[in-house]
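Title: [Solved] ABC transporter ATP-binding protein 3D structure

Original question kept below for reference.
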Amino acid sequence: MKTYFRLLSFAKPIEKFAIPYVIATILSIIFGTLNLTLLVPLFETLMPTGGVNSSIITNTATSSLDITGQLRDFVNYSRNTNGIQLTLTYVCLAIVGSVLLSNIFRYLSQRYMEDLRVHTLLNLRKTVFNNVMDLHVGYFNNERKGDIISKVASDVQVVQFTVTNTLQVVFKEPLTLIFYVLVLLSISVKLTLFSLLVIPISAFIISKIVKRIKQQAKEAHESFAKMIGFLDEALGGIKIIKAFNGAERTKQKFHKENVIYSNLNRKMVRRQQLGSPVSEFLGVLMVAIIVWYGGNLIISHEPNALSTSQFIAYIALFSQVMRPAKALTDSFSGIHSGIAAGERVLDLIDTKAELVNKPDAVELAEFKKDLVLSNVSFSYGDKQVLKNINLIIEKGKTVALVGPSGGGKSTLMDLIPRFHDPLNGDIKIDGYNYKDLTIESIRAQMGTVNQESFLFNDTIFNNISFAKPDATQEEVIAAAKIANAHEFILNTEQGYQSFVGDRGNKLSGGQKQRICIARAVLANPPIMLLDEATSALDTESEKLVQEALNNLMQNRTSIVIAHRLSTIQQANLIVVIDKGEIVESGTHQELISHSGLYKRLIDMQTFND
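Solution (posted by the thread starter after getting help):
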């Protein structure tokens, strides 16, 4: 129940929808019950005077609560006063009016519930997505993307129907049941108490049937998440799959999980579907027993027996009692599935971001002096990646990070925009400790161009202006010119309004990288972070991109991870990192003269070239 009430909290302000829903539902139930109760005056009107039960039917209601008795009194009075034809007209008009009103209020009830359902889904999905966007970068290295997508898309959808349907079942169906039972009691207390035995028996049997549905639902949601993950990987790596003839293996991998998911769904649906025929059979069995028992009372002319019209109305009403009772029992299976999905969604919502602003964090207005790393260490779990890094990056200088692969260069680069916090040591900018500043103001001072050039499936213009959403056409074009991108953009089908495709797959590697550089230029940050921005390019593209990078780095503080060491020989400071430690630092000439790791790396590249 704790999980359910937490999920229900996303419906706030619930009273906006709940109050009109309650009013409309109550009126719908009242008129819906009246529809069947009006069968009594209808049959009383149509039955000829002096019928089978005329000798044992009283002409007055036993009490003010005897609804059917009151209606019979009205029919007898009207039939004697106005005649049978006019009485029949009155009864028919009453039935039409009651049906019309019950349907109007039922429509309004469903409309308010649908508004509540949409409102709940909106709030829940917004909360989940917002929390995902606020999580630290490291979280996504440990989680399957397909599982996150499944929770945001599929699980949230299951939850919204469970929350609102349960709310509907918990209020509407019991209330409907109460109204029907009250009318049945007004007709015959003895027969009603006898007939209601079916409800607890049915509920007990159904609860046994759906007992394992929650566990099966949880397993099904997790299996579906795996399939989404496989699909995402397959679409992202389609070229590799084709290149290594891996299509059949990938199909088999997906099919295997698909079979598991299908079997879980089959078992779950079988249990869900079993509840409906069981409750329906029990209901029909009870109706048959009531027809047999009540019919015998009428045929035997028992004292105080029901009239034929009352008995027909009773059977009609009791047959409707099974509908809300059946809805209540059927809802158990849906609740179990929804709670299982809800627990997965809440688990994602409850995942806290490791990096949050301190309550008294201040804004960094501008970068004035330097960026300092003091005794910085960092670990991924038990694996230490950086050890006691000490580095001063002065404003306006270019600092290059070089060294063997896996030495910790990219991790160090990730610490600078505060994607992670160091395990030990401090990072300061202009004397302010990173932890005393807002994360947003730190990142506002920086622009990034990565080795993997990422573009959104949008126009070239929107990809460049992502760094500055209010940028004008002239500003975007100016940034593209600095990045050596303007000419090839004009040669595309629709120029700056051309779509780049999924992850920019309509463009070459060099073109994508230059658009990423244009995006960074437009942001115009004082600090530029360049993570092997030319390593994946051919010679011609590399030349164009390197020229664009040189334009980008002018009059800026630049931190560069270098793939080709020849491109960073003019850097003010070259830092050599190996096995998480700074082993050398200095200018190109100083490091060459030391004949250390840097010189060996230079010699290796020269030899390979």
